[in-house]
Amino acid sequence: MRGKVARAVKRLIAFALVWVALVVVAPGAHADEGAALADAAQSSDPQVAADALYRMAEAEDAAGDFAHAVQHYRAAVTRLPSFRYAPKAMTRASQLEAHSEGDYRPFARLDAVRRDPKTSDDAAAIDSLARDAEGFPPGPTRGEARMVCADAYLARLHRRADGEAELRRVTDDPKADPLLRRQAAVELLDALLDDGNLEGAREVTESEGKLLDRKQARRIVVASRRRWLHRGSLVVLALFGLLAATAVVRASLRGALGGVWSALRGGAWYALAYAAWLAIAGGGFASAYETGNAEPFYGFAATLLPIAALARAWSAAGSRSAPARVVRATMCATVVLAAAFLVLEAINVQYLEGFSL
After folding, report:
1. Burial 295-306 (b: 16+ CB within 10 A, else e)
2. CA distances from 208 to 173, 219, 223, 246 (A)
């Protein structure tokens, strides 16, 4: 019983020494702090020694002394494989060892940028890292540094050409991590599609086909279809406006413009009532869902008003023959679909994905 109490007291004293070294010692006394940890690491108690070794590794890791950090992470696990930080220590040691190219100098350069949040928006710092990455030895660090630069260029610095160039360097780097290369290929495809560069996107799918799955490659087909629909919708709107305006001008030339104005006044309330119902009822229904968005209904209601006015004027000024009425009805239905497509595309293109567009 006395032996157990003595061991418990020794463990408590050893833990107190570690705590004093980490917390109580005044800032600047790093040498004494390190010495205290080194003494605790030699403790006969495996728990105390493993904890001290782990704390030493964390301090070295933070200071950029990655080689010694790896040694102490592994030593902590060797001293007590079951201690609470063993999985974390082994994971970090393996991660550091995988980035040991160039005696950890490239990784230290990358780590310094990652640790400083100010550099993410600093063009000069990102440019400097991009230049340094060109001289990094082959290995995962080079690819990760280029990804950091690519993300900064694309997301915050708005230098899309530079960001896409960095992504291409990652996909072309055989020594980069395979998952990182796949991520770079997907982000490059996204960037090119956002730019409307379908030719460049096709080149990526052809050259980096092994890094992209069928779903990603199919996005080129969808984007091409969407581009043609966008152009077609604009043509439909322009043609609709031209035909309606032509009919009104002809009615004016033959002195029948009064009938057009009467038709517009008579149908205005119906158009306003329908647009208001669409905006209020549709928008309210969409807003009832947690992820719903009423903007498409508001935008579509706003576009319907001028379309309804032009359709009413065209109907009053145009021919009364059956073929002419069929053409007008078909054209009005088509222009409504074109307007709906353009509204959804302008608000959020993801709404079109449900229609495979």
Report:
1. bbbbbbbebbee
2. 12, 14, 18, 52
Helix ranges (DSSP H) in the chain: 2-19, 30-41, 46-63, 66-79, 86-98, 105-115, 123-134, 140-151, 160-171, 178-194, 198-207, 214-253, 257-277, 283-287, 295-317, 322-347, 350-353
In tens, the pLDDT along 265-306 reads 766 777 777 777 777 777 777 676 656 677 877 887 888 888
Closest C-alpha among 168, 215, 221 to residue 191: 168
What gap in Å lies between CA 196 and CA 321, rounded to an integer? 44
Neighbours of 134 (CB within 10 A): 10
DSSP reduced 3-state for 354: coil
Q: What is the DSSP string of 117-170?
A: GGGGG-HHHHHHHHHHHHTSPSSHHHHHHHHHHHHIIIIIS--HHHHHHHHHHH
- Do 233 and 346 reside in the same domain of the chain? yes
Tally of domains within the chain? 3
User: Of 212, 245, 263, which residue constitutes the final position of a domain?
Assistant: 212
Among candidate residues 98, 114, 136, the one where a domain is terminated: 98
pLDDT on residue 29: 42
